[in-house]
Amino acid sequence: MTPRFRRAIVIVCDGLGVGAAPDAAAFGDEGSDTLGHVLQSRRVAIPNLTALGLGNLTPSFDGARHGAPRGAWGKLAERSAGKDTATGHWEMMGLLTPKPFETYPDGFPGALVEAFERRIGRSVLGNVAASGTEIIKELGDEHRRSGRPILYTSADSVFQIAAHEETIPVADLYKMCRQAYELACLEYGVCRIIARPFVGDGPATYKRTHNRRDFPVPPHGDTLLDRLAAAGQPVFGVGKIEDIFTGRGIAEAVHTKSDADGIDQTLLRMKTQREGLIFTNLVDFDTLFGHRNDVPGFAANLEALDRRIPELLDALGSDDVLMLTGDHGCDPSDVSTDHTREYVPMLVWGPDVRKSVELGARTSFADLGQTLADNFGVVRLEAGESFLAAL
Fold first, then answer.
1. Would you say the pTM of this structure is higher than 0.85?
2. Taking Cα atoms as reference points, which of 200, 300, 207, 313 lies closest to residue 259?
3. Which of the listed residues 27, 175, 180, 233 has the most CB atoms within 10 Å of its CB?
4. Which structural domain range is residue 137 located in?
């Protein structure tokens, strides 16, 4: 079959929630609204995203609503048992995670830590649930004196290792993460190992770098990416997409330094790849602003993305479709620094997409993947309902 849309560009604004999901209370996130609370806090100039319908989605702010959005707009609720990057991305590509990964809010078990220390030949600092920026301020100096890596976690299923790039070279940190994967992921049910390199001369100047890498468990079943690859449709990953899917179904990929670089790399790829899927993750919303409770920073990043929307739309061909979404919430106005269980946006635009189509509140992130599976004529995914006919 000939796809209706020859090429799809999917951009994930990591952590951009648009209001509490129906089951938010079960996750301790009742009342969360990442977008709404950011827009409430200050005047935020996002005319292009408003025209696409983004402001119509938040339940707690009316000032960015648009009467007739340029394309299709709606929101997606997550069905998987989690509110993290992996489950969110896997579900949007059609794979549900019914059982949550293990979390360790009180630190990792002694047996796991001791086994990890034996593997790497040195002891660790920390082993607590903490903010990544705060723990390097607290333990960074001791880490540099002792050479001991900093181990910490969060409300998510993550085993995070922070190290100064001059104390533990990045390549060595990645090796430690692979060793941790064999223990924490394979034996203790952790979803992801994350390398958190940083630089600086002291607590006031310590700063995490773009050399972060994720080492997650692989998806536990086929995703849209696998189906596209089997059908000969190219998939290009931008940002941490390659890590999230452990490379499966991805023909080529590029890691990025920032969200601005993510848009640059997406536009660059659009010049050469004329079919299949370009799949981009913009992580700064989450890592730099949501987790740090930085409302002004989150607002500024929204404005920066908004200024790039015309470039993205102008780069679309007559048979292209652009989809903008999120993978979970990360409300920067929340009392915690953790992810929040929220709806995520589903904005769709293309020269051949019907205007002002309301997609409504949909019951799974997988509706996005199922729509693309329908479009490209690949085997139906395990979850999701296509909205291709509405477009």
1. yes
2. 300
3. 180
4. 110-216
